[in-house]
Design goal:
By secondary structure, the protein is of the alpha/beta class. About 25% of the residues lie in helices and about 25% in strands.
Length: about 300
């Protein structure tokens, strides 16, 4: 079954995402890496699983951090409708992935919700929802793995609940920026033309540093910008890895893709057709978990 077949099947078949009440996963077996565990809470195709695996393995090669073991004790539907009951001790990050309805074919492709964080302000449990209608478009335009990697980036800590808690975002609505030293140093190596305060976060939606994306008109098709179009390459840059170094991860910069900060002016601009704007959510009240022992 291809991703296109899965999308057609999902549109004509009711998949119960609000049943909950069980520790048993709804989807296929989980994926475990030293950095994260991925569990599926809806039906997904083998092809989609392989794309998720590739994204998770790339992040695992790039980042490492032993955050410890956390007691998870949440009822069914705690984080989202259809969330399984969690009653376990879990190591590092747990990502729950589902395929469901978001906005039809309006090209809001996915979102990530953080359900709980550790005392280090990094997520412990997160949920990634992929828009089933847009799966076909993402596959055809060769951006599906990039979209999943982008959402995993939010789940790993590229989000305001993590970097603002560490005092790494500022600038207000007019000119928000990420102020971590490692990200700034890498930006200076690859975007020396930019004369503003670095590293620029998205400013088009007037959310200030609460918008967890690099500024599109500066970064273009970089993985953690929020607009994308057909065949966008979506490279994981050393700048993004620098942000994670600033958040406390150990980073292997050799995993980064080739990337230079090239301004999207005039003929250089490739118009986006889809958006990852507004793709980050925080469940309120946000649960803060303490590890059972120091890692």
């Amino acid at each position: 079954m291809t991703i296109k077949d899965l999308a057609r099947f999902a549109l004509s078949t009711a998949v119960c995402l609000a049943c909950g009440g069980s520790d048993s996963p709804v989807g296929p077996p989980p994926l475990q890496t030293p950095l994260m565990e991925v569990r599926y809470v809806s039906s997904v195709s083998p092809e989609l699983r392989s794309v998720v695996t590739a994204a998770a393995e790339k992040w695992t090669r790039a980042l490492s951090r032993n955050r410890g073991d956390f007691p998870l004790n949440f009822p069914a539907n705690h984080c989202f409708a259809g969330a399984p009951r969690l009653n376990e001790v879990h190591h590092n990050l747990l990502i729950l992935i589902s395929v469901g309805d978001l906005d039809g074919s309006s090209r809001q492709l996915a979102f990530t919700a953080v359900c709980s964080i550790g005392e280090d302000a990094l997520p412990i449990v997160a949920h990634i929802r992929l828009d089933r209608v847009d799966l076909v478009w993402m596959e055809e335009q060769e951006v599906l793995e990039g979209v999943i990697a982008h959402e995993m980036g939010h789940a790993l800590g590229f989000n305001p609940s993590s970097y603002l808690a560490k005092g790494l975002g500022a600038g207000g609505v007019a000119d928000p920026y990420f102020s971590g030293g490692a990200a700034r140093a890498r930006f200076a190596e690859h975007g020396a033309w930019y004369s503003g305060v670095t590293v620029p976060l998205e400013d088009s939606r007037e959310n200030g540093p609460n918008d967890p994306h690099w500024r599109f008109v500066v970064f273009g098709d970089e993985l953690m910008a929020s607009e994308l179009g057909p065949k966008y390459r979506l490279p994981l840059s050393v700048i993004t890895l620098g942000l994670f170094a600033d958040l406390g991860y150990s980073v292997d910069y050799s995993v980064a893709d080739s990337y230079e900060v090239i301004p999207l002016f005039g003929a250089n601009r490739v118009p986006p057709e889809a958006s990852l704007a507004h793709d980050f959510r925080i469940i309120s009240p946000l649960t803060v978990l303490r590890p059972l022992a120091s890692p």
